[in-house]
Amino acid sequence: MRWLVGWSSTAAGAAGIGSAGATGPDGETVHPVGSQLLWGDPDPLWAVGDWRPDEVRVVQADPQNRIAVLGICGASDEQLRVGLFAARGGALRHLTAWPGSYTAVVQVGRRVMVCGDLAGARPVFYTPWAGGTAYATAALPLADLIEANLDFGHLAALLAAPDVPAALDDSTPYEGVRRIPPGHALILRAGAREIAGYEPVASLAVAAPPADPDSAVDAVRDALVEAVRARLSAPRHVPDIDPGPVPGMGPAERRAARGMPVPGIGADLSGGPASGTLALLAAGLPGMPGTVLGHGTGAGERLLAVTFNDLAVRGRESELERAGTLAANPRLHHVVVTGGEETLPYADLDGPLTDEPGPSLVTAVRHRARLAAGSADHFTGYGARQVLDAHPARLADLLMDRKRRHLVRPVAALAKADGSVLVPARVYSAARKLARTPYRAGLEALAERLLHRRFDEPGGAVGASLAALTWARPGPAARWLTGEALAEVSVRLQGATHRFGVGPGQRPGDYRARAALARHASDLRVLEQAAEIRSQRLHAPFLDNQVVRACRALPEALRVQPGARAEILRTVLESSGVADLPPGWGAPSHAPAAQAARTGLRVAANDLMALFGTPLLAQAGLVEARVVRKALRAAAEGEPLPLDGLADLVSLELWLTRLLARRGTCWTGTPARARAVPAGITPQRNALGAGATARRA
Q1: Burial 672-691 (b: 16+ CB within 10 A, else e)
Q2: DSSP type of residue 355
Q3: 10 Å Cβ neighbour count for 33?
Q4: 365: part of which helix (H) or strand (E)?
Q5: Alpha-carbon distance 166 to 446, whole Å?
Q6: Helix, strand, coil: what percent of the chain each, to 5?
Q7: Distance (Å, rounded) from C-alpha 507 to C-alpha 435?
Q8: How far apart are CA 411 and CA 428, in angstroms?
Q9: How far apart are CA 452 and CA 454, in angstroms?
Q10: What is the mean pLDDT of the chain?
Q11: Model pLDDT, residue 687
């Protein structure tokens, strides 16, 4: 893991913060383990972890004005200096408009500004500490710093309503550690904190001009090309030197056995449109995008393209064929990684502790097998579906804009998939109802559903679309939670209706799409940590700020059409000089993923039964072990249960197990080493119910 951590004190020298560490409320001096100091008193900043030299840049105008950028950033030093001066006047958005994926921290006198990203893949956390505020790009270091206990209300909301920002609010799994919402910045003034949004707010007085589809797609192309070019312009990296030969193994085999990536740049090539677009763009841009000369393929200019072939589950033959056709490009070096039952979901329940829990913990071994054959810098297509596709709730947005005719094609596609003539009327009625439902009423309806355990939803593609035509809906794991846990989440939702609402001009479809993007980006962050290969960096250009902005500017009428994502990416490639895409480009294939999950449940049934023998989730009062074991057995036998809900339960139990088995800490110093959840989980049978009663009072 890599993160930055800093501190803002109430007054210069008040808490004894300096380059050697920080003095806590009890007089102890602590500092981050494995850190490098970027700047010192009175508001220090550290970079922690295995950062590359080119990933940490500090530009200083004078001793009181400086900017640090951590990550991949396409801005020059002069542009960083201009951004620093703009931030002095409050123009924080300027700091987020450069190509790449990075975190920017600006210090202007005693004012510190930390910018999060739009998607949520590079979040910012904060907590009060020693009379000031500590901040970091990871929650666990702050939890260690304050010895935080678990926030059981947040964990309950994570299972009951993971796609509802109002249920999670700004909480984290750790009590006292808070998260900055995507699209916001943390501003600290001598310890006092403020959270400010840096994106422009839609006006209620003047309607936005209609977006031109061609110009919007051109903007997406330009943003993607710049995002890829920012990675290609960075220095090439060669992993640690090969320690020596192994009898019977060649260099590539030794590297894979030791978990070392191939030097240079590569990309996923799954056969889908997102990974294919990035691989072809990276291979087609001028320069030498691929492996370093003298390493790997020896071609130097060829980009390593990795395809995963699941031998345990069939159904992706057409995608694999398309990947092979794309790999015929002479600037690509194609590698196919095969996996059997050992790479199924749930196959390996051991792994590293991640900053937060996420569903991808159960599939980490699957991704690690693919990434082990990848490059030191590896492109992935994660996030394309969330930023380009239309959430079903966007149909209500079209009705609000009086664009009914644009509903014809998506509704007709649903009717064709279902085979019923009643589908158009049902979908139109649900979209119309959502368009007329206030946000507060939507949250109250969800709170009522959770309280009375109403989780039944229609099945199939039409059923999923109808269920998504709401402001908020229960999570797939909610049906297995205890009544106390559901009551706690219900109270959180009812309180949220009085605390805040959606922003001015916010539509239900746009709101749901942003929430889905934030959850996906958060899970990708968990995946990066759980499947991490030493010396490797995963790149997800679709989650870059500028790409997210360009995709949000796409007209909804274009976005809701069937196959819109594939057509947009086809246009991006064709306008970039890449043509002759294989037949079936962009055809969806979700069935193999569900089949792999069910097969993995069946193969790992004994291990999962042991995991939920005496689960920590039951000790916390969130589930009953008997209920979860029954659901796991039923799903393994083929009953139609929500598999993603079971993945949520298993991943959270795995995360809790790893967290409590941990013995280290992110801080060192005297007299004691602080650690999160120092007392473990004590039985919480009535804790959630008591918390709900207190909130009502």
Answers
A1: ebbbbbeeebeebeebbbeb
A2: S
A3: 16
A4: helix 364-371
A5: 11
A6: 45, 15, 40
A7: 8
A8: 8
A9: 6
A10: 87
A11: 46
Distance of CA 354 to the CA centre of its chain: 13
| Phi/psi-derived region of residue 158, left when phi > 0, alpha when psi is between -120 and 50, beta in every other case | alpha
- Backbone angles phi and psi of 127, in degrees to 5: -155, 145
Q: Give tens-digit pLDDT for 211-248.
A: 789 999 999 999 999 999 999 988 877 776 555 565 66
pLDDT digits 0-9 by tens, 332-379 = 889 999 999 999 999 989 999 999 999 999 999 999 999 999 999 999
Residues 574-580, mean pLDDT to the nearest whole number: 87
**Rounded Cα distance, 160 and 167, in Å:** 9
The predicted structure's pLDDT at residue 21: 60
Residues in the chain: 697
Q: Which of 198, 43, 117 has the alpha carbon at shortest distance from 522? A: 117
User: What is the Cα gyration radius of the chain?
Assistant: 25
Q: Cis omega before residue 438 (within 30°)?
A: no
Q: How confident is the model at residue 673 (pLDDT cuts 50, 70, 90)?
A: low
Chain centroid offset of residue 672 CA: 34
Amino acid at 391: H
| C-alpha 614: how far from chain center | 30
Compute the distance between CA of residue 530 and CA of residue 360 in angstroms, rounded to an integer. 8
Please answer whether residues 233 and 346 qualify as being in contact, where contact means their C-beta atoms are separated by less than 8 angstroms. Answer: no
Query: Tokens at residue 129, please?
Result: 């500490």
Alpha-carbon distance 198 to 193, whole Å?
16
Rounded CA separation 667/35 (Å):
10
d(C-alpha 530, C-alpha 532), whole Å: 6
The candidate with the shortest Cα–Cα distance to 102, out of 58, 63, 135, 61, is 58
Task: Find the DSSP H helices in 436-482.
Answer: 439-451, 460-468
Distance between CA atoms of 667 and 30, rounded to whole angstroms?
6
Structure tokens at 476: 């797939």
For residue 486, the Cα-to-chain-centroid distance in whole angstroms is 25
198 Cβ neighbours under 8 A, 6+ residues apart? 92, 93, 95, 96, 115, 183, 184, 185
In order, the DSSP letters of 297-351 are TS-SSPEEEEEEEESSS---HHHHHHHHHHTTSTTEEEEEEEE-GGGSTTS----
As a whole number of angstroms, the distance between CA 414 and CA 107 comes to 52
The helix (run of H) or strand (run of E) holding residue 557 is helix 556-559
> Which range is least confidently modeled, 11-25, 331-345, 670-684?
11-25
Amino acid in position 379: F
> What confidence tens digit (pLDDT) does each residue in 180-217 have?
999 999 999 988 999 999 988 765 444 566 778 999 99
Distances (CA, A) of 597 to 370, 581, 592, 643: 17, 30, 9, 7
